[in-house]
Amino acid sequence: MAEKGIPDIVVGRLPIYLRALQRMRAENRHITSSQELGERLGISAAQIRKDLSQFGEFGKQGTGYSIDFLAEQIRQILKVDRVWDIAVVGAGDIGSAVARYQGFANRGMRVAMIFDNDPGKIGQKVGSFTVQDIEQIESAVRAAGIQVAMIATPGAQAQAVADLLISAGVKAILNYAPISLSVPENVHVQYIDPVIHLQRMTYYL
Amino acid sequence: MAEKGIPDIVVGRLPIYLRALQRMRAENRHITSSQELGERLGISAAQIRKDLSQFGEFGKQGTGYSIDFLAEQIRQILKVDRVWDIAVVGAGDIGSAVARYQGFANRGMRVAMIFDNDPGKIGQKVGSFTVQDIEQIESAVRAAGIQVAMIATPGAQAQAVADLLISAGVKAILNYAPISLSVPENVHVQYIDPVIHLQRMTYYL
DNA sequence: TAGATTGTTAATCGATTAACAATC
DNA sequence: TAGATTGTTAATCGATTAACAATC
Lengths: 205, 205
Known about the structure:
2 copies of one chain form a homodimer.
Chain A: H1 8-26, E1 31-32, H2 34-41, H3 45-53, E2 65-66, H4 67-78, E3 84-89, H5 93-100, E4 109-116, E5 125-126, E6 129-130, E7 132-133, H6 137-144, E8 148-151, H7 155-167, E9 172-175, E10 188-191, H8 194-202
Parallel strand pairs in A: 3-4, 3-8, 4-7, 8-9, 9-10
Antiparallel strand pairs in A: 1-2, 5-6
Chain A binds a DNA duplex (24 and 24 nucleotides) through helix 3.
């Protein structure tokens, strides 16, 4: 699947770089350097230059990088120079918070629909969305051509939901349920579990 | 700070192993092997054995690992054989969802208090908690001896909140705000930003 | 015993860093 | 020009894997 031989770990840092660049832009800055970016992010300047060099030459010797230009290049690389519609599954606390989340704006993502299996939730409003019956998920996702989804169901249902989404054409899943999903190799999964992050820190306390 | 020379990346996998073991236990299993665990998690058996060997000898040749015993050992290593009280800052959608989250149970974490700066939220209930005035955060966190916190404020306030928490004695922060925090080296930070995870996947679409 | 699986060593693989010529 | 910073190469560092003796 990897279009070229770019290491996953490098791709994983690009969104971090992009977020920092957008923040600098919001501070009305126009130029930065690998050194400055590195200091902000706790990453070495050499690594930032090496990472970027995998995709092209975006800077100028002696000057650094145009923030606008570099951000736009990274957006193109990550394919977030467009807007991806997202299907959210699960209208509980997490799904609802995600559906109302303001942080997707200008970052290439937009929640497009939200599903649940609870008759008490179906038809209710969550933010600007009406909760849809999970029975309709496959046809609705397929019809909208959605490729990106977020699972915010209890763990017990997450695998079944993932299977449905995949058969509807979804290729990227962000999973909030606390289980490892098993998916075909052309489907990408990322995990968010706050407890995992917390447990990783208590070791050092 | 590192008590021994255990690589961060190894510590980071322990919570994943623990979660899988707890799941197996819930399925009423009693014994597992590095191979089975690896297949569930998409990690090589050799890596799991190598990781665990950093901390001790927890298995039996020919048999594998007792799920209960190994889970308990990992809990002790991660210091989640106790319950950590957590302060949540920000009673918006994310903070509220976290405060009501059921997934902390039996995993060594418990939300203990939630703060906001909005007079319209202070005094209101969020789950079983009453939102407290952020003015009281330093004294309340210090008095409770809290060392773990989650920041769920807008990005603009996150650094100031982090500074307050740190001066109150917090040593581990899970940050939902979309900015990199700058903290002393004895304070640990982890980040959750759904957009970062999503952008990391769109590259491959 | 025979079969299975650990813990560990050595080999391989990959990622990070340091250094510097090129050049803006 | 002098100073600064890139892109890239080579060296270093660290992580993963393969293999196997030990042993349950």
